[in-house]
Predict the 3D structure of the following.
Amino acid sequence: MTDTPSKRLSGASSALPTRRQALKTLAAGAGAAATMPLWSRYAGAQSAEPIRIGFGKHATGIGAAYGRWYERTSVAALAKINAEGGINGRQVELVTEDDGTDPKRAAEVLEKFASQSKCDIAFGTLFSHVVIGAAPRAAELKLPYFVVSEGHHVASGMLNRWTLQPGITDVKSQVTAMAPFLTNTLGKKVTMIYPDYGFGYDHRDNLTPAITAAGGEVVAQIAIPPTETSFTKYFPKIPRDTEVIYHVMVGPAVLTFVKEMGEFFGPSRPEIFGFIDSLEAVDLSSPGLEFLEGTYFWEGMPRYLQDDAPDYVKAYRDAVGIDANGASTSDGADVSTAAHMFGCWETLHIIKAGMEAADYKSTDDRQALIEAVEAMTDMPAGPDHPQGAKRFNGKTHQVFGPQYISKVTDGKLVVAETVDYEDTLYPDEVDYTTMSF
Amino acid sequence: MRGKTWGAVVALHLGLVAVLFALNFVLPVYHQGVLARVMVLAVYAIGYNIAFGYTGLLSLGHAMFFGAGLYGAGLMGLHFGMSALPAWLVGTGAGALLALVVGALALRTAGVSFMIVTLMFAQAVYLTILYFGDITHGDDGFVVPGVSRTLAGIDLSQQHPRYLVGWVLFSAALLFSLWLVRAPFGRVLVAIRENEERARLLGYDTGRRKLGALVISGAISAASGAAYGLLFGYVGASFAGVQYSIFALLWVLLGGAGTVLGPFVGTLFMFYLIDLATGVTDAYMLIAGVVLVGLTLFAPQGIVGEVRRRLWRDLP
Amino acid sequence: MSDVILSTKGLSKSFDGLRANHDINFALHRHEVHALIGPNGAGKTTFVSMLIGRLRPTSGVITFEGRDVTRLGAQARVQAGMAYTFQITSVFAKLSCHENVALAARRLGGDVEAEVASALSRVGLGARAGEIAGDLSYGHQRLLEIAMGLAQRPALLILDEPTQGLAESEIAGFKALIRGLATETTILLIEHNMSVVMELADRITVLNFGEVLAQGTPQEIHQSAEVQSAYLGTGGDDAEH
Amino acid sequence: MEFGPYLLLACLEGAVLAAVLALMASGLSLVFGVMRVVNVAHGEFYMLGAVMAWVVTSVLGGGAVINFVAALILAPLIVGALAVLADVTILKRLSYDPERTIVATIGLLYIIQQLALMGYGPEARPVAPPFNSRIALPWVEWGEGGIGLYFPWGLSTTSYKLFVIVAAVVLLAALRLFMTRSRAGLIMRATQADGEMATAFGIPVERVYALVFGAGAALAALAGVLIVPIQQAHYLMGGDALLLSFIVVIIGGLGSLAGTVVAAVLIGMSDGIISVFFTPTLAKIIATLLVALVLVFRPQGLFGVRER
């Protein structure tokens, strides 16, 4: 993907999946532009060059299932933005590169965005180590880098002024928001099961004090290596007096994990609460998951269409192409990563809002874009923010939003409780706005 | 080798060094960045080549040396705020030390066993990095602090200083390996590769020389890892994983094992191959696989090796 | 300096209980050409392999230049002054003749170029210095082996079947070479070709079934009834050469 | 959980791992034993077995039992055929040179893995087990009224897991019978003992090599089919399985089938039991270092006899 846009259009005969989608995005935008009033088209024509957003995609490696849905959501969001006239009257184009879920490649991909494919900004990527590996390059390249990672690394101050996370909440706020529900509704004695690496430690380090603060107690912490493929041997470490099991696993073996947990407990299980990460992109009707009936999950955004869903949520789901069960409308077995991918949609809308606030014209305005986003605070729920009302903290570059707790009912996830963003806040750990660009 | 052709060889290598220097000022910014990266990684390949290409030690665990350099330098910066040069030296030293320990054990084996033993040791090193997550930040890795990315007041994260530091390191490694293969020590390494028993019966202590070669190889690989961390600012466990051991093998095989220029050519070629392949397919590692199989089948000598075979027999 | 450069006492080697060498007492005098002969499977190669250090003896002692070398590795013995040429050619096939010999000479330091030129020309390969060793004919590779031995300026040169595969004319040259060498070094020759043995050797040791059968001058060995009978059954025609 | 039931559970889990590992490692060991090459792509054949099981299941769309039996037959055949193809087109042309073969099979590893990613996708997909009922296990207890049985919390296994153990035992016994009693097995062993001699006796060594390579891959695929109802088929699942098989084959003594099976049981069981005492990552570090040291100091393996 090193050629210029004009070449790209003429060379469409060799169009490839990612390229084809970019083209579709463009075509949709062009069609929409034709229907708009003349002045708008004129404005668009003035700077015909589209705004280019580099999208680092987990297309291969362990993050691949997420990458696919992140891309679908992003393409859908841009189709909407373009149909509504683009950004500052310019069309927006997604330039997708595989980062291999690998930090080295992700850093290279950022270089490619900045200097080769002439992207205005970079965006994307979930896995923490990939973000942490790539972020220093973003700062060196002075390339705004909007991540959709849910890691705490942004708000912890580890990264830099050019890296922001305005579209998805971080694990620290998610976890602390769960503690009251856990202790008040499910039980006081909690056993945690989490992957034995950074993402799991975020859960361990944040949940334990939050549970204590809420009057409960973490009775055991069981770390499981991320490469593990069989889990039954870890379950005996769960103390007998456990009232709640809190689980969060990622990677290809998540289904095995949940299944074996069910087989372990049989009919006499404690209350079970999990982060949906354990089952993201996994069909709840998969064999072995029957036992999850009646257990609870954190969801970033509900996977199943809720009865009381507002119209903008329905519109969002239709645009992305997921059915009432959160699976692809074209393939019911292709389950989405609904709890995370909304972050791409919202981030792209924030980029639009930021660029318009900064009157973004060219890459010279990148700094102004960062400052414009830093100045944002409240983000009302609506078509741009279908997951719910949020507040952005410009100092920590981190957004705070609602958290959903859903119960498996008749094989579907039904929202049982919603935690508003006010209850997920925590003291600032960094002030990026004091750092130099 | 007669003096005249040696002169041409030196001219070729110095010429490459000069061209790379000049490219800093003319290349578009993306390719300049790529080349800086390739030069630093080519140093890793040069290190690997000394063990594999010249001494015949087919290791499947060199990522542990690269990782030792990366973490040795990065941790000094993260925990002690050490500046770039001493941090780099610590990293390089850590790699040399690790190579000494691993070599003392692994060199008791040969051939297939050596491959597997090095693979296992590297795996243990990788897991150790994960295990001591409190210090190493485990799987996430960490960003190298700015203070460690400064050399004599120059910010190494800037485009030109980074390129030039990479160039200095690469040039030093390239010319060192050119010198080494002509030096008596290097020639004995080649003799060991060709026929270890015969070399031993010429009175050479082959065990110690292999160990020496592995330590040099490990130190150079670590020098590359340390520089990589300091220049590009990120230290992570994936660099110590099995795939990066395979990469070194791949680059050297592709460029030509046992040639001085091969590691650079292989690294450069493979980088652009993958860079272009990602535009065509998500499964770009497929290209790596096809290249590996193709090389073993059709060009075991690699690119520079084929040049030597067909065109320039005295190319070292 | 003792007259005996190398000796063995009670040297034995067995493989899984199979006796390959048994209780060999052997002495090699300085500046002699000593031939080691015996029928196939008599244990000649096992014996020299222990001398040079490629095999560990099961029991017994090897003394070289007055020093017990039984526990030393091969390279240490070579450094002490032994040199060994392989029975099956074992040159560095991908390297040039020059580099092959230079590798042998370089360990000693000194004027390597002159040493290489001299060693190659002594075996008659002076004109082939630039050729790749693996491209040489088999006979020439054997000569290259000898040149590598010479370049080490050894106190003791062990030649394992050096004339195997050589043409008649080359054998003649080889004989002349060895005669010339006798003044500067000691030579232990393992050889099948009886004409070479009889012409070159000052003394001969005969091995049979892993034990010393006889020892003496060529004349004495030639007349020994024991040796005759040992060779009659197995390789009697060898003795007729 | 009390220590006794915990240990029993760890042993049961270890036995399942050991069963699958023994099958897979036997394939690796067979290939190394007869052909003297290390097949680094072996883990990918295991993965292909699992993926094929999913493919067969979804194409047939019959009942769980029929699907599973079909997968058990078809997947090893398909994977074995692919391996034979790889042998004929690649390994044969390398003359089975040990080092070049390793490099080529590393290439093969990436090719298979990435093709699986392209064709099958990045998801972990499940296959329904033919039967799967939870079996709670009792434990003895000395209570006031003497010895009593009770069912501890969590002490259970499933009928399918027990089936995997039994199936592996049967398959390994069959393999042993095949190698020792059948003519084909005899030919394989003759080739293993001395390839040149075998050629001299008119054994078509090349064909034997191709079939052995195919059979080794088929064993890995079989292991993959058996495991997929417990785990799921995923395109990256071959890596860890390969590493474990390496460990087993090395500990068991390269090329010795009996040693391989013993080592698989040892490694599988200890994996379950070590996790009782150590943190899992530390256990893995210790295990890998141990394997490296075994190769360094006892290259014939723990159970092998030193070759002269």
Remarks:
- The mean pLDDT of chain B is 90.
- Residues 206-232 of chain B form the longest helix (27 residues).
